[in-house]
């Protein structure tokens, strides 16, 4: 059995968000401030029984809460109507136990199965943190918050009381719900929920010091070993612990006897005043030495060089290794606690930004071997939730296990990338291969630019800075230079494969590509004035969508219809395309020709230059771009690129 989905309502930005959960590992990605940490905090809060505070209630629902309470105070709402009108913070856990056989016990899930249909293999648990149904308590709390028992007509004061006393006004209730009759429900205990979902949370801010403090992961793990019975440990570990206990026991006995003898003599010699005399009981010292506790509390990680026979303290090792070692200890301890619980349950592991302090190769290795490591340290299946800002982690996790967190005006939406894959198999194969070969920065970007090749990739950052310096982006408070924009070199032949995925993610995207004018039966490259059509697959795909033709059709796209494409037809949803346009009487067929056209003096061309003079030839495009940047800082930017960047600058990132 496994957790299939979590639906969250009315918690911070998670106004109504449903997360489909993978049976093994779920990776949650997205740009900053898309409630990835809030998701983990919410589930942790639910499983710990709360409470939540006023700051956890969605911003745009707080006024409604205060207004409803004020209407109740003014006698416009009954208490029952008030309770019905105040939206609770809600978690819905949907569990799939279809893989369990008739002989398998459902263990901790059993209390939450209240339907009688033997064919139904889904359980639904609803947890509500809502207004407590205690009218006297409500009025007492509000009166206490205002310091006035009589006058409840001050709306602002009542709202202040709600803010300060939110945790007293709200309470948590756990329900087992019939999945097919959701009005049929039974109240359950929060303890039963904890038994079903034993959980471990590893936050991003991990304490990495090996200083013997309580935060020391080695000390805590050793303490658990010492306190465990042999039956709770694996055979090899149990045998080693038996040897260690023997060594410690013998050392305790030997050192204790010698210590008592020496310290007793020392005390007797030091004490004067004629006491004790020979007939009295003699003073002695009994020390309480406990090597168990010494080992538990004073064991620190060190790093040994075998050849030199020397060791260094843990503080001398890199933070990346410490982070990895600490997570391994915590995972081992969690697996041990889950195995100890015994009863059938659904363990949940939450790791926030595991890439902290790790270099890219280590991030990749961690993501690649996480599932196998978890299987190795325990027999119970653990469902893992990861949140990450690392393209290296996202590259490693299978595409179908990734959930993209998108921020919209209505709150956070979690998008299952496997949903896209099911509808766009050809595109997905290409995107997965591309992500594997490069990096999937697209999953963390505010906006994206898809470019033709190396020249555009090298020139675009410099061109963006030029446009910003010229004031082209001043129409927005946060200019394009201040936004995280992912620049992806994908080529005109493949950019269109990205566009459905970009639309799925909801990211504003600019495509900068080349006209690539051709003519004749063999599609020979020619100047734009002689061109009959374009060889650019992305432009043809775009035009066909504009006119309603099949995207994979073979109908000829006339070049004049491309060149004359109006501005409004260059935008589809949140995607915009730009290609060369006419300037100074000519239109280049490529970026290089467009740059030569508007920078004629740099290339020794005068106003009488012909279209053939603009031809770039067979030189290195990379050298062309670098030469322009480093030798001709004041070059002019072609209009089509400037127009596209201004469009992208003006787009909102929250749809």
UniProtKB/TrEMBL annotation:
Q: Which InterPro entries match?
A: AAA_GajA/Old/RecF-like (IPR041685), Bact_Antivir_Def_Nuclease (IPR051396), P-loop_NTPase (IPR027417), TOPRIM_OLD (IPR034139)
Signal peptide location in the record?
none
Q: Which domain of life is it from?
A: Bacteria
Give all residue intervals belonging to the Endonuclease GajA/Old nuclease/RecF-like AAA domain: 1-48, 219-394
Domain named OLD protein-like TOPRIM: which ranges?
443-516
- Cite the Gene3D superfamilies for this sequence: P-loop containing nucleotide triphosphate hydrolases
Q: What is this protein called?
A: AAA family ATPase
Q: Which organism is it from?
A: Ellagibacter isourolithinifaciens
């Amino acid at each position: 059995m496994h957790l299939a989905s979590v639906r969250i309502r009315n918690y911070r930005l998670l106004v109504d968000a449903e997360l489909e959960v993978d049976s093994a590992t779920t990776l949650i990605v997205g740009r900053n401030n898309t409630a990835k940490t809030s998701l983990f905090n919410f589930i942790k809060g639910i499983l710990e029984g709360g409470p939540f505070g006023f700051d956890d209630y969605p911003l745009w629902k707080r006024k409604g809460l205060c207004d409803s309470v004020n209407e109740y105070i003014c006698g416009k709402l009954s208490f029952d109507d008030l309770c019905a009108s105040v939206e609770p913070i809600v978690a819905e856990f949907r569990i799939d136990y279809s893989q369990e056989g008739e002989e398998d016990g459902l263990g901790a899930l059993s209390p939450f199965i209240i339907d009688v249909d033997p064919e139904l293999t889904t359980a639904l648990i609803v947890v509500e943190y809502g207004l407590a149904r205690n009218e006297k308590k409500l009025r007492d709390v509000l009166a206490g918050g205002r310091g006035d028992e009589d006058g409840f007509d001050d709306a602002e004061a009542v709202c202040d009381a709600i803010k300060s006393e939110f945790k007293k006004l709200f309470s948590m209730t756990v329900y087992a719900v019939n999945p097919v009759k959701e009005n049929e429900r039974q109240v359950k205990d929060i303890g039963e929920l904890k038994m079903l979902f034993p959980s471990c949370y590893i936050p991003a801010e991990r304490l990495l010091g090996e200083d013997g403090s309580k935060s020391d992961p080695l000390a805590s793990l050793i303490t658990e070993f010492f306190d465990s019975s042999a039956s709770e440990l694996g055979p090899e570990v149990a045998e080693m612990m038996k040897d260690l206990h023997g060594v410690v026991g013998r050392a305790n006995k030997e050192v204790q006897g010698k210590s008592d003898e020496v310290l007793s003599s020392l005390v007797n010699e030091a004490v004067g005043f004629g006491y004790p005399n020979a007939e009295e009981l003699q003073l002695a010292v009994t020390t309480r030495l406990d090597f168990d506790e010494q080992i538990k509390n004073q064991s620190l990680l060190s790093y040994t060089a075998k050849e030199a026979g020397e060791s260094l303290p843990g503080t001398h090792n890199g933070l990346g290794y410490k982070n990895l070692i600490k997570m391994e200890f915590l995972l081992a301890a969690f697996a041990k606690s889950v195995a100890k619980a015994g009863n059938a349950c659904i363990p949940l592991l939450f790791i926030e930004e595991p890439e902290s302090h790790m270099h890219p190769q280590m991030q990749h290795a961690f993501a690649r071997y996480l599932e196998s490591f978890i299987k190795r340290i325990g027999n119970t299946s653990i469902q893992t939730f990861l949140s990450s800002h690392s393209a290296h982690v996202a590259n490693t996790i299978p595409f179908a296990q990734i959930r993209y967190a998108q921020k919209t005006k209505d709150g956070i939406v979690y998008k299952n990338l496997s949903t896209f894959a099911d509808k766009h198999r050809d595109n997905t194969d290409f995107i997965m291969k591309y992500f594997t070969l490069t990096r999937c920065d697209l999953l963390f970007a505010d906006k994206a630019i898809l470019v033709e090749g190396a020249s555009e990739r090298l020139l675009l950052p410099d061109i963006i800075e030029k446009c910003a310096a010229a004031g082209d982006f001043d129409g927005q408070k946060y200019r394009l230079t201040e936004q995280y924009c992912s620049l992806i070199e994908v080529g005109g032949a493949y950019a269109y494969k990205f566009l459905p995925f970009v639309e799925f993610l909801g990211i504003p995207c600019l495509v900068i590509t080349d006209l690539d004018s051709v003519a004749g039966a063999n599609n020979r490259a020619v100047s734009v004035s002689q061109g009959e059509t374009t060889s650019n697959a992305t432009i043809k795909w775009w035009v066909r969508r504009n006119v309603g033709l099949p995207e994979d059709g073979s109908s000829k796209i006339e070049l004049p219809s491309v060149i004359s494409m109006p501005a409004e037809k260059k935008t589809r949803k949140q995607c915009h395309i730009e290609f060369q346009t006419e300037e100074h009487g000519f239109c280049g067929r490529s970026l290089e020709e467009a740059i030569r056209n508007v920078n004629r003096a740099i290339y020794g061309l005068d106003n009488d230059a012909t279209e053939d003079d603009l031809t770039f030839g067979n030189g290195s495009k990379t050298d062309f771009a670098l030469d322009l940047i480093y030798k001709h800082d004041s070059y002019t930017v072609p209009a089509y690129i400037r127009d596209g960047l201004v469009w992208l600058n003006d787009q909102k990132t929250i749809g």
